[in-house]
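S1.2 Input.
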Amino acid sequence: MSLEPIDPETALELYLADKENDLAEASLEAHEYRLNHLVRWCNQQDITNLNTLTGRQLHKYRLWRREEGDLSKVAEKTQMDTVRVFIRWLESIDGVEQDLSEKVLSPSITPDENSRDVMLDTERATEVLAHLEKYEYATIDHVAIALMWHTMMRVGGVHALDVEDFDAEEQYLEVRHRPDAGTPIKNKGDGERLVALSDQLCTLLEDWIENQRPEVTDDYNRRPLLASRRGRAQKTTLREYVYQWSRPCAIGNECPHDRDPEECEAIPHGSASKCPSSVSPHAIRRGSITHSLNNDMPDKVVSDRANVSQAVIDQHYDRRTEREKMEQRRDYLDDL
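S1.3 Output.
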């Protein structure tokens, strides 16, 4: 077999273009993020032609990435599994030696290790929302975080909402998959649903729309619910709101890490994720699901509302202890 020379940057560009129709937007972005590290490493190693890539070099990359990124076992597996997919694709276009993908090593993990434990618990979520209610009422930060907590939505679902998706009279939001209009959602058509809202959240949304929301449209002439002066708020911006307000110091609490605010690396704009106590939107979702389960919301209701299977809830989201589950089951004994 004759290999055709290809540099790392071109290979990644062609790979992403080829996968554009196969992967959801969020998955494509994740692949690009992970593989950019491999491109960066190749540049550091002066690897300009992937034809020369070897299994030993890929193992060195794995060790470099583990140390450089301070990766957990789960994160390392995720990154190396993506590298394997990329190398397998390169084999199909004669960019690397055949069967090189079989030499990409990735750690084995148990189901327990694959379950992430980070979540915004009820106490912290209540503190954050109380602070926003008092000092940042009906700002986009407040609305975004309140929506994520009270609806269990993924950040992509919140990002996809339009003003017209909110029915104030019937008190619900309609989550829709609109890939042709710039807002695909996870699970596509299967992710479409109506989400009931509380009186308090409806009032917040009404106050946001009537008093604070910029009267703008996006590139598809739609009126995004979460809007900035430039149009639909970006998902990265929504994530940053969560990182920002989940820092203890942001809501007036003492820093649990004994950091000096004047020198803390998590203080500058865009750096909030560097705070060890800050969490991602997924941690809000996990905390909200666990909160609902702890408050006796039926598993099926949680599954439908959050648009996630019962099996996935059990493995990745449910953070109740075995004793908490037992005590909840005890409440039903009188009905037997």
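S1.4 Remarks. The chain has two domains: 8-114, 122-284.
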